[in-house]
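Box 3.1 A note on notation
Throughout this textbook, protein chains are presented in two layers. The first layer is the amino acid sequence; the second is a token string describing backbone geometry. Keep the layers aligned when reading.
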Amino acid sequence: MVIEVLKSKIHRARVTQAELNYVGSITIDEDLIDAANIIPNEKVQIVNNNNGARFETYVIKGERGSGTICLNGATARLAQVGDIVIIMSYAYMEPEEARIYKPILVFPDSDNKLIG
């Protein structure tokens, strides 16, 4: 048996753009996805702290150091620029591995830059 557990999280990032006329996805600054061990095209769950929306999409690599958090396509309707979101990725693991696995937690500053 395998279970799905939190692999990594970008906690309280600020939405910088919302582009409705795009195919779909979320564009994330490459510094943040590297720090969170998320890869381009990986499925992520997003929680909007401002309105309670929860949704899934896939990641597009954004310009390194830009602080970009851009919701594309239909997801642009689920957040406004300035909203605070939590971006989470998950992995399947055997329960024994899951018990000892420590998720990667990234806490960006108010400009979506890495702290420390």
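The radius of gyration is 14 Å. Residues 30-35 form the longest helix (6 residues).
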